[in-house]
Amino acid sequence: VERTLAIIKPDAVHKAEEIEDIILRSGFAILQKRRVHLTPEQASDLYAEHYGKLFFPSLVAYMSSGPIIALVIARLQAITYWRELIGPTNTIKARQTHPDCLRAIYGTDDQRNALHGSDSFPSAQREIRFFFPDSVVE
Ligand code: ATP
């Protein structure tokens, strides 16, 4: 069993219950959950890998624009499977190529894409610690 970090981003928080239902029905266990409103500084830390990119300031503004919900979810191959379920980064393109994915359904535009999923095992470790600093790393 593998763990990954999922984020319900500000544009989708009003659909959180529905999304958590889908998470559970997709075979994940929800191990931890936290609703937080990130400061711009915290959002910059979270997305430090994108520092310097053209979209960085608006990404930080988006991610600190309202509460988000961070979830530690677990199942076999959680990282890959959750990324598959949320679909391509760009909501508009996702609607054309993967209409059933969660970003196609819950996303807003090419930046506000409703959901996040860690992209690798090291990212998952880092992001889980970011939101749940007391969690035990296995
Ligand atoms: P996430 O890390 O949120 O799961 P991702 O791994 O699919 O998304 P990244 O390339 O890591 O995509 O980008 C992080 C976030 O930055 C995206 O989810 C999106 O909100 C925003 N973003 C990425 N690329 C662009 C872009 N070209 N224009 C605007 N926003 C973007």
Automatic annotation (TrEMBL):
Boundaries of every Nucleoside diphosphate kinase-like domain copy: 1-138
Record-level GO cellular component terms: cilium
Transmembrane segments: 54-74
Listed GO MF terms: hydrolase activity; nucleoside diphosphate kinase activity
Top-level taxonomic group: Eukaryota
GO biological process: cilium movement; CTP biosynthetic process; GTP biosynthetic process; negative regulation of oxidative stress-induced intrinsic apoptotic signaling pathway; spermatid differentiation; UTP biosynthetic process
Catalytic site: H116 (pros-phosphohistidine intermediate)
Keyword presence, Magnesium: no
Residues that bind ATP: K9, F55, R83, T89, R103, N113
Keyword Nuclease recorded: no
Subcellular location: Cell projection, Cilium
Record keywords, A-Z: Cell projection, Developmental protein, Hydrolase, Membrane, Transmembrane, Transmembrane helix
Family to which this protein belongs: Belongs to the NDK family.
Name of this protein: Nucleoside diphosphate kinase homolog 5
Species of the source: Littorina saxatilis
